[in-house]
Amino acid sequence: MTHALRIAALLALAAMALGGCASLDARPAFDDVRQQVADRTGHQVQWNQGRDEDAAVAVRVKTMLADELSVEQAVQIALLNNRRMQASYEQLGIAQAHLVQAGLLRNPVFGGSFRLLSGGGGTGVLEMQVEQEFLDILLIPMKKHLAESELAQARLHVMADVMDLAYRVRVAFIDLQSSQQAVTVWRTTAEAAEASYDVARRLHQAGNVTDLDLSGQRALYEQAKLDLAAAEADVLTGRERLNALLGLWGDNTTWYAAARLPDVPENELDLDDLEKQAVGHSLDLALARKEIETAAAASGLDVATTVFPNAAVGGQAEHDPGGPWQVGPMLTVPIPLFDFGQAASAAGRDEVRRRWEQYVALAVEVRAAARSARHRLLYARQQALYYRTVIVPLRQQITAETLLQYNAMQLGVFDLLMAKQQEVDAGRRALEALRDYWIARSDMELILKGRTPAAVLDDVAGGMAGSSTPMHQR
Questions:
Q1: Could you report the per-residue pLDDT of 66-83, keeping only the tens digit for each?
Q2: String of DSSP letters for 34-53
Q3: Angle at CA of residue 97, ends 96 and 100, nearest 5°
Q4: How many CB atoms lie within 10 A of CB 413?
């Protein structure tokens, strides 16, 4: 027994030497994510783990909700308060625990038996053994390398989740502001349609308007009321979408946002060396590179465990009645007569090559997505500016000229009302163009910060960007 215990102790010491000391604390990994988020977005993230600083963050959220929200404040609240984001941070703890587990040996296995001797009066042979899979010791460095790669992947996944949440909040906030302005526009349209219908009704009573003309004006008025109600419903829906993204409920949902979208800025984003920036900062490509590294590490581990499963070393002791203990070492090693690991090795190589091809394809798609986003941004800017500087002023001029003609009794009231409605319609289309511009700008900002919007990536990839996962892994 003494020798068996010594063998087990030596195995444990070897495992400690190879595995080293690893902590279960995932805060260093989160601190790295926190710094990356600050560098890329200028925003703060907080992993809520019941510490004193969490209470300070809650107070900060309350303070921001008390004032008029800007888009940047909305993003910051979401990053601090969204519970799905908090769940994402737990990936770091899981990956850190896996790293610790990779440095540990499996527990040794103890076995024993007692055989009664025939006619021995209850005496018999006692056998005991303890064994440890020694392949675990040799594989600890490989397991740790794989776990470290998976921890790096977890950090990148969390970073991607942060960027995606910030983007969704930004787009939802833009949609809400657009919806709020649309309510004002549709209310003006409804008022104009009501005025037109009222004039038509009075003229109809005087016999100057046909039933058909009156019905037409009423139809326009009734449709305008429906459109106004739909716009008001869009505002309520947009608020609830933001409440969910910001992680708000109860009294915290009484916040109010800046009412209007900002105008198109004088200066556009710096789009010089766009492709270089998009590729160099890409979280998607960094994650794809880590997946290649992880696949290579997993391949070597699979081959070793396939060829030598359950290889174990240990000690065995036997005691016969009236005799001394007999102690000696034991070894269990599979004989690779049929499976040399050739299939596992080939599958591993193919998986690494598959990941590499995906990486190259993704690099091409990221470049194309960046160019596509630039085209959309510049087009959206051109459209928004054209509405602001040409279409809307032209419609305002037409309304003013029509009013002069109406005052001179050269045009009727319906002509004046129609001109006003067309001016309002131009304002509504200008608002839609302004919304599209800010969404296109958000797409470009996200790309420059290292994350390609899924819709843009799927568009340039023809819907194939997310279709590369093997069927057995779906």
A1: 999 999 999 999 999 999
A2: HHHHHHHHS------SS-HH
A3: 90
A4: 13
Distance CA 198, CA 473 (A): 65
Are 465 and 454 a contacting pair, CB within 8 Å?
yes
> What pLDDT digit, counting tens, does each position of 193-232 carry?
888 889 888 888 988 888 888 898 899 889 989 999 999 9
Antiparallel, parallel or unpaired: β 109-116 and 124-132 = antiparallel
Minimum mean pLDDT range among 24-38, 165-179, 324-338, 358-372: 324-338
Burial, 375: exposed, middle or buried (Cβ in 10 Å; 0-12, 13-18, 19+)? Answer: exposed
CA angle 29, 31, 33 (to 5 degrees): 75
Q: Which two tokens stand for residue 159?
A: 């970073």
Q: From the CB of residue 236, how many other CB atoms can be counted at a distance below 10 Å?
A: 10
Dihedral angle, C-alpha 403, 434, 171, 440, nearest 10 °: 160
DSSP state letter for 268: -
Report how many domains make up the chain.
1
Among residues 82, 392, 385, 456, the alpha carbon closest in space to that of 243 is found at 82
Spatial distance between the Cα atoms of 238 and 66, rounded to a whole number of angstroms: 19
CATH number of residue 466's parent domain? 1.20.1600.10
Distance between the two ends of the chain, CA-based, in angstroms?
50
Report the alpha-carbon distance of residue 274 to residue 284 in Å, rounded: 16
Distance CA 112, CA 99 (A): 34
Strand partners, 465: none
What's the CA gap between 12 and 119, in Å, rounded?
43
| Cβ atoms of residues 380 and 436 within 8 Å | yes
User: pTM higher than 0.90 for the full model?
Assistant: no
Residue 413 has φ and ψ, to the nearest 5°, of -65, -35
Give the separation between CA 283 and CA 163, rounded to whole angstroms. Answer: 10
| Nearest alpha carbon to residue 216 among 229, 233, 199, 231 | 199
Q: 137-147 burial by CB neighbour count: b if 16+ within 10 A, else e?
A: bebbebbbbbb
Contacts of 329 (CB under 8 A, 6+ apart): 3, 4, 7, 313, 314, 315, 316
Q: Three-class SS of residue 408?
A: coil
In angstroms, rounded to a whole number, what is the distance separating the alpha carbons of residues 27 and 47?
9
Which residues constitute the domain of residue 219?
A: 2-473
